[in-house]
Amino acid sequence: MATQLTTELHHGAVTAQGFATPKEDHSPQKIRVPPKRILPIIFLPGIMGSSLRVTPERQRELKNSNNAVWRPDKVTEVGSLAVYGATRRQLQLDHEATEVDTYDPVTNPTGNKDETSDERNSAVRIDAVLPHTKNSPLLEREPDHACNFLTVDEKARYRGWGEVFFSSYRTVLERLENVLNSPGQEDSWKAVIDVDPTAWHAGPDCLLRPLTREEVDRVLKGTFFPVHAMGYNWLQSNHESALKIRKRIQKLIDDYQSRGFQCEKVIVLTHSMGGLVARALSHPQIGNMSETILGVVHGVLPALGAPAAYKRMRCGFEEHIGGLDPTPKIIGNKGSEVTAVLGNSPGGLQLLPCRAYGNEWLEIRHNKVLFGSFPKNGDPYDEIYKVRNRWYGLIREEWLNPAEQPNVTFARTCLYLDEAREFHEILADYYHPRTYAHYGADPSQPSFATVVWEIDRDYTGRHWRDLAIKKDDGQGKLKATELVDGKYRIETKIKLGPSTGPGDQTVPLRSAEHQLLKGKVKGVFRQTGYEHQASYQHENALNATLYSVVRIAQRMWWSP
Fold this sequence. Notes:
alpha/beta
């Protein structure tokens, strides 16, 4: 009977694995010698894609049985917000009282003595039947007799997979983990090796050539690519999130090195808002990690912001065409509910279109005639976001503080908008020098490239700018009156026009295309067929991601 043997470094990292057999058995034995080199992949999710918990004080104020306030995988849990109004949302999703809900089975920081961290992260279950290796850096099952036995699910949770919207992101996390680290994944590689990248809608200006079998083998040989996810508090400024992610990445590298592995750099993979965090993370004036980050892959990045952010703060979240994700509507079905959260969120306000998005994306029309458009002078902050006493402005002040919290004022929101302006101007045209990107350019996925307010055809007034809102249903229908000779005499209706412009139902091509037009990225894939949140479940996006990761990994030069 064979006995499994392992040889380890004193740090616990496996150096070899084989079997001792009886003397009578003369058959050759194979010894598995895992690589010592580690090149982690760090996944940063989009807005609402990281799980959050509140402080003990806020938990008591909310009278919650635990401290979880945003876990998108727990539909019944987040769904409870749907029965509450704006007041509860403001208290529950407060950037000053929330933090990332990390996995910690030792201290179980769930805010409930009867709930373990594993129960909190029960959505993370890896179904694959994997080989076992003691203390492997991969998501492999450990032998039952291993010291400090960890299941595959527990390993994935330690990787941060439970910090993010797992049911939405599991496809890309598992695909990269398996394809880059496990033998026998030929079917997945067939879709990438020797395939012209134009098959996944690579931009013609990038001149990307197909990957060869030899190139892939050279990249994979002698290196592990463990896939980690790192959530961040999407209510806080992306500048602050970048600084926190910087510390976590450095700690991860230190931890691998302490286990005897050679780990020097990471590859960063992003979705939506996570791309803003990654750009800040590598920017020399913020995270300054461009040397530690080997490269970045951006998915559906709102490079210049998205007018949909304005629309949602005024009219609530829309129904996605073919979308299966209910969480946006839970954040706010009406503008009053969204404003109570994002109007007090530095991070949420940083998704608004910046100066570089350009002029005249907010239109006011009457009988299809353009009455006016904003911004006119390249300043959406002063012309739209911070403007007062204009019905088309971003902030309905009466929606901002339904919980009547101290120091929550229009002036504070304006300070957050000033921070957003500064953040946008620092990022400007900066991208990590080794960046690849894929995004929606789909005419069938209208994405609010412009936001249009349509004034009723029967309106006979002349001072449309001065209309005063008398009724607002929070979903894009207004009743307004015009002051004539000191009295409100003309009443009219105003409604939100339909979403137009190619994209992915959230980020318009006009914003995402900045990555291509500035010529700062190595490769761009302008794709169709997916909605924003579901982008990493589409084969074209997955193949473009795998291609981009390999191209980045080719540039790794290991220290001797």
